[in-house]
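Posting this for the archive.
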Amino acid sequence: MRNARKVFRRRYGSRGWYRRRPAPPRSPLRRVFDWLLTIAFFILLALIVARLNTPLPGRGPPAGPAYVIDGDTLIIDGRHIRLQGIDAPEMKQICRRQERDYDCGVEARNEMKKLIGGRAVRCSASRNDRYNRLLGDCRVGELDLNRAMVETGWAVAYGHYASEEAVARRERRGIWAGSFERPQDWRREHEALQETPHKGPSPLETAMENLYLWLNKLVSTLYDQVQKNNAP
């Protein structure tokens, strides 16, 4: 009985708590291995980010996932594309609606992202503007993004799409629901904020954007496969 008490106290202590045996100290070799494993992980992560940020080879028409800069500018494969024939509010531009100011430039950018919906974009471009951006017409499937931005009222005609602008204005869509300055006039009045080449996304932003697009495509594919398998 006395021996049993000694064993109990040795294992659980005088208060009945379980004593966890201290972990054996790690050997110097094991510590070095752990450090090398941690360094290798971060190197691999950096390589993945750099690879996702590297434009695809080839000089064909821009096509693939798009990073939306604003309501009329995209980045595809590291190339800046300015949608020609339209002019969307600048990112810092303020418009007025229902007697309140709002960030119409931000909303125009959100409309472009909504139209793209995480899908691949393809553009046809033949020349560059003065900021060395490609001037092009872009599509998602059969949807003409240039035309759609004017039709929804989040861009104005800028050499093309006058009839689409007239319809948007008549039906008070987008920025036509309130008052605003045309982007060209707004830039002229804010010379310090003139339209300039936009800085591209950081490697981390590109990695996150590509990861989102990849996951979105994967989920859509799996969903379609499940629907196909469950079809009678």
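The longest helix spans residues 203-230. Residues 97 and 123 are 33 Å apart (CA to CA).
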